[in-house]
Amino acid sequence: MRHYEVIFMIHPDYSEKVLLIIETCKKIIHENAGIIHRLEDWGRRQLSYSIKKLQKAHYVLMNIEVVPQTIDLLETEFRFNAFILRNMIICMKKAIIIPSPIMKLKDEKKDKK
């Protein structure tokens, strides 16, 4: 099995469907004997440039360990899901389980409040 980092952006008007989309991805991964090492919901964030006339999107990051056929299934899910604006799947050398810098910043902001 290989390690992958998956990031996808969801249309901001459908932020309530984020949990449903995440559950669908989890189901695909677990049905194909995959492992989720890290799952982070970054929330709604400003885009660097507009996509389909949108200025914000809801971001989700996953680090997974799956066989390449599972990646094909995830890509198909992303392609045919109208709520997902963009996605990126990167092959990694090892599993990453530590929080991302974005989550560390969110945690620091919560601690200050």
Features:
113 residues; alpha+beta; Alpha-Beta Plaits; four-stranded antiparallel beta sheet; 3 helices; 4 strands; 42% strand; rRNA-binding; ribosomal protein; ribonucleoprotein; Small ribosomal subunit protein bS6; Ribosomal_bS6_sf
Question: What does the model show?
Answer:
There is one protein chain. The chain is 35% helix and 42% strand. The chain has 113 residues and is of the alpha+beta class. It has one domain: Alpha-Beta Plaits (2-Layer Sandwich), CATH 3.30.70. It has a 4-stranded antiparallel β-sheet with strand order 2-3-1-4, with helices on one face. The chain is globular, with a radius of gyration of 14 Å.
Structural class category: alpha+beta
Give the number of helices. Answer: 3
Number of domains: 1
CATH top level is Alpha Beta
The oligomeric state of the chains shown is single chain
Please name the fourth-level CATH homologous superfamily: Ribosomal protein S6/Translation elongation factor EF1B
CA-based gyration radius: 14 Å
* Helix and strand pattern: EHEEHEH
CATH topology: Alpha-Beta Plaits
Binned strand content? 35-45%
Gap from first CA to last CA? 42 Å
GO molecular function, one term: structural constituent of ribosome
Protein name: Small ribosomal subunit protein bS6
Family: Belongs to the bacterial ribosomal protein bS6 family.
Organism: Buchnera aphidicola (Hyadaphis tataricae)
Furnish the topology, listing elements before pairings.
Blueprint: E1 2-10, H1 18-31, E2 35-51, E3 54-66, H2 68-80, E4 84-92, H3 101-112
Antiparallel strand pairs: 1-3, 1-4, 2-3
